[in-house]
Automatic annotation (TrEMBL):
CDD domains xref list: HemeO
Species per Swiss-Prot/TrEMBL record: Streptomyces uncialis
Name of the protein this chain belongs to: Heme oxygenase
Keyword annotations: Heme, Iron, Metal-binding
Superkingdom of origin: Bacteria
Keyword Heme found: yes
Chain residues that bind heme b: R11, H18, Y126, R175
């Protein structure tokens, strides 16, 4: 039997983990409009640590045969996150900001992949950026409605990819990159395993946030 394209393999293999992340109580409560804007800001802070890890290391991977093709400036989110945080928390948003332990563990794993295993970095790249281009748009819509942010404006800039005019086409191109990834079958399996780990790291952050913002009702 023919092996399915890698983009199909990684999507199928992470489907259960996706459902789990998506249905975590923090996500459901946040998207259900049950949490205050403080919870959203706290979540955005955690994302900043994760994207800093993903993007601070990106430049060093630009020429890497496996990870290099994935490094695309139009995906970069750190600046958008910083603008959102300045809006949500004020100009001193960074003062005293500390990552939750689960977030630190996530960022550290990303940094480790950047340093030691760029193919593993691809799994983290896929898990975040393709997700942001997909379900991220649902989150933006809910955030705008729940907390009254201007459409695609301050507070939700993280979800707005200004330089990607056709997300569906971009995602097709991204899947082609995955399909052509310069890795053998064993390495591809390792990338898939790392993708599951990336989802688990996200879910752990949601659980930590869920503990911080339990529903009072
Ligand atoms: C409540 C939150 C979420 C919703 C509503 C959601 C929704 C979606 C939807 C509708 C798609 C399919 C889009 C398409 O086929 O083009 C998708 C894809 C994806 N999501 Fe999510 N998602 C959520 C959370 C997450 C989280 C937390 C992650 C990981 C951190 C994630 C990662 C992904 C990835 C990687 C894909 C691309 C799958 C592929 O086509 O290969 N999502 N999401």
């Amino acid at each position: 039997m023919d092996t399915p394209p890698f983009s199909t393999l990684i999507r199928t293999a992470s489907q259960d983990a996706h459902t789990e992340a998506e249905s975590s109580s923090f996500m459901s409560d946040m998207l259900g409009g049950k949490l205050g804007v403080d919870a959203y800001a706290r979540y955005t802070e955690q994302l900043w640590f994760v994207y800093r890890a993903l993007e601070a290391g990106a430049e060093s991977l630009r020429d890497h045969p496996v990870a290099g093709p994935f490094i695309q400036p139009e995906l970069m989110r750190s600046t958008a996150l910083e603008r959102d945080l300045a809006h949500l928390r004020g100009p001193s948003w960074q003062e005293g900001l500390v990552a939750l332990p689960a977030t630190r563990a996530y960022a550290e794993r990303v940094e480790e992949c950047v340093r030691e295993w760029p193919a593993g970095y691809v799994a983290h790249h896929y898990t975040r950026y393709l997700g942001d281009l997909s379900g991220g748009q649902i989150i933006r819509d809910r955030a705008e409605k729940t907390w009254g942010f201007a459409r695609k404006g301050d507070g939700v800039r993280f979800y707005v990819f200004d330089e990607i005019t056709n997300p569906a086409a971009f995602k097709r191109g991204y899947r082609e990159l995955l399909d052509g990834v310069a890795a053998d079958d064993l390495e591809k399996q390792r990338i898939v395993a790392e993708c599951k780990r990336a989802f688990a790291l996200n879910t752990a952050v949601f659980h930590a946030l869920g503990e911080e913002f339990p529903l009072s009702a």
